[in-house]
Amino acid sequence: MAEYEIAFNQIVRFVPHVAHDEYEKARIFRQGLKVSIQCVLGAFPIVDFRSIVEHALGVEVQDEFTKELRAGGGRD
After folding, report:
1. Which tens digit of pLDDT belongs to each residue from 25-35?
2. Nearest-CA neighbor of 38 among 28, 25, 50?
3. For 18, what's the count of Cα atoms within 13 Å in the CB-facing half-sphere?
């Protein structure tokens, strides 16, 4: 996720017409996320870029935790 955010910010920085405002930047960022994360984020309204990034990071952490539990890596 961190790599994607860095790469996305570089694109927007060097090609500013990609996203005209914070809402558009957040919308485009969300479209580039893994489908599993996009599905969860669909429940959240797009407010601004920072909010989407924070929500996506939270979803990613939860997704990894769930995978660990399913793999038997959870605590006893």
Report:
1. 999 999 999 99
2. 28
3. 14
CA-to-CA distance for 2 and 45, rounded, in angstroms? 21
DSSP state of 21: S
The phi-psi region of residue 72 (left if phi > 0; otherwise alpha if psi is between -120 and 50; otherwise beta) is left
From residue 16, give the alpha-carbon distance in Å to each of 7, 20, 22, 29, 59. Answer: 14, 7, 12, 14, 28
Give the global pTM: 0.82
CA distance 71 to 39: 22
d(CA 51, CA 69): 27
Q: Which residues contact 9 (CB under 8 A, 6 or more apart)?
A: none
